[in-house]
Specification:
Blueprint: H1 2-22, E1 38-43, E2 46-49, E3 63-72, E4 81-91, E5 102-107, E6 126-129, H2 130-139, H3 146-152, E7 155-158, E8 161-164, H4 189-194, H5 199-205, E9 216-227, E10 233-242, E11 246-252, E12 264-267
Parallel strand pairs: 5-9
Antiparallel strand pairs: 1-2, 1-3, 3-10, 4-9, 4-11, 5-6, 7-8, 11-12
Protein name: DUF3108 domain-containing protein
Keywords: Signal
Signal peptide: 1-23
Length: 270
């Protein structure tokens, strides 16, 4: 009876993982031939590399754009689990007349497959103060929005075991790699690339840093867990409305093995 139950549970996990991964991939011809970390956008002629997106906005018009992020790791297969972080907003001069510096958090429902996975109740969208968001993700400081920020994050089955998306543990502290899952949610490219050396002390003592963020507005963060199929393929679709001054940044918490992969970014053409 126990064996039958185990086999049934395993079969369900495999089936659910495949369905989740492939639900979006059939809409992308040639997805399996794309490199790991490919970032595409949809045109009337089909999917194109995001590097060609700037030409679409030559007329300066606001548009709703469909994107696809592809995880394609044939060496991992079903062990490839991850979380894609999509950060967007308005930068520079375009942010001056766009209201308060708040951050909108979005996270859809995701079926639990692995026993270790935890998806706290979170009614999207929720809004937190920009300074609190930055303090929490850039330095690990305590904020008045901690309850909301913690419920936004999830626990997922990574290659190295179960991890929280807001885990502040440095990838290799004594080797000088202070990057962490939490730092990948930062809107500061320097924090994303290098991590925050003070996170450890901030977590213990709860001290607060001097706020020094660049002018931004309409900031939005979407968290999208994914699970690859038996070939290591997963496709993550998302949509954004882009206007003059928009930027989009994408981070895959599980892309790269010994060293994290670089952040993907797109900026409205000058």
């Amino acid at each position: 009876m126990m064996i039958r139950s185990f086999l049934a549970t395993t079969a369900f996990a495999l089936l659910a993982s495949t369905i989740l991964a492939l639900a979006d991939c059939p809409s992308i011809p040639g997805a399996a031939n794309q490199p790991d970390g490919a970032w595409l956008f949809l045109t009337t002629a089909g999917w194109r590399d995001v590097a060609k997106l700037k030409s679409v906005f030559a007329d300066g018009a606001t548009r709703r754009v469909s994107f696809a992020y592809i995880a394609n790791d044939r060496t991992s297969g079903l062990s490839r689990r991850g979380v894609v972080v999509v950060k967007s907003g308005l930068d520079g001069k375009s942010s001056a007349q766009s209201g308060p510096d708040d951050v909108t958090l979005e996270r859809g429902a995701s079926p639990k497959i692995d026993k270790c996975e935890i998806y706290p109740t979170f009614a999207s969208p929720k809004v937190v103060g920009g300074r609190s968001y930055d303090d929490y993700h850039d330095g690990g400081y305590k904020t008045k929005y901690d309850a909301t920020l913690k419920s936004f994050h999830v626990k997922y089955a990574s290659r190295s075991g179960c991890r929280w998306s807001n885990d502040a543990s440095a990838d290799a502290y004594f080797a000088g790699r202070w990057t962490s899952n939490r730092s990948q949610f930062s809107f500061d490219p320097t924090i994303v690339a290098n991590g925050q050396p003070s996170q450890f002390l901030a977590t213990i003592f709860g001290v607060s840093r001097a706020y020094a963020g660049k002018p931004m507005a309409k900031r939005r963060v979407e968290l999208r867990p994914y699970r690859a199929d038996e070939t290591g393929l997963a496709c993550v679709l998302f949509e954004l409305t882009l206007e003059p001054g928009s930027f989009v940044r994408v981070n895959d918490l599980e892309r790269g093995r010994k060293v994290r992969a670089s952040e993907l970014s797109w900026q409205w053409p000058d």
